[in-house]
Design goal:
Elements lengths: L1 H29 L3 H11 L1 E3 L2 E3 L2 H57 L1 E4 L2 E4 H73 L1
Antiparallel strand pairs: 1-2, 3-4
Helix pairs in contact: 1-3, 2-3
């Protein structure tokens, strides 16, 4: 019975030492990069003829660490893909916003550089040209109207002066005609009176 207990104790102690050594190996493995872990396994493996013999526990640790690293890389890659997709969506949203802002800016610039004239939107340059054309047209029209008025006024004054002269001549002629008529009437009367007697 003692031997059994002793064997059992040795077996448990051996497993504990093996477990401690395995935990120590795992801690050392985790501190190494994946490439260094492969180098460690290669260096610690025994050589048999042309082959390397690897301990199953070391192989399992290397396999687990490799799978864990690949899983981490896959997770990081998926995260990066999601970040890239989010950035693409953000960029697309900003591109749309830039297009809207560019359209608004062009519309604002166009409305700033144009005026509404008689219901039509025209550029400021054309508006200024039209306005100055109208101003110059009105000035020219005013000058023409003024000259026509002056000419008409001078013609009217001349006509009025001639009319006054004609009226004066007519009045003189009328007075002289009236005197002649009165004279002739008297003469006629005188002749009638002479013939009566």
């Amino acid at each position: 019975m003692r031997i059994r207990t002793l064997l059992f104790a040795v077996l448990i102690a051996g497993q504990s030492v093996s477990l401690f050594a395995q935990n120590d190996l795992k801690a050392r493995f985790d501190s190494l990069s994946l490439n260094e872990q492969f180098e460690y396994v290669y260096d610690k493996s025994e050589t048999y003829e042309r082959y390397k013999v690897v301990k199953i526990s070391t192989f399992n640790l290397l396999k687990q660490n490799s799978v864990d690293s690949i899983d981490i890389y896959k997770t990081e890659l998926k995260t990066r893909y999601n970040e890239i997709a989010d950035l693409k969506n953000t960029i697309a949203g900003k591109d749309d916003k830039i297009k809207v802002l560019t359209t608004d800016l062009e519309s604002t610039t166009k409305s700033k550089d144009s005026m509404v004239f008689l219901g039509a939107e025209i550029g400021k340059g054309a508006y200024n040209s039209i306005m100055w054309g109208l101003v110059f047209g009105l000035i020219i029209l005013s000058v023409v109207v003024f000259l026509m008025f002056k000419r008409s006024n001078s013609i009217t004054s001349e006509t009025k002066r001639r009319l006054d002269e004609v009226e004066e001549e007519f009045e003189t002629h009328r007075k002289s005609a009236l005197k002649r008529e009165q004279k002739l009437a008297r003469e006629l009367m005188d002749e009638k009176l002479k013939h009566k007697f």
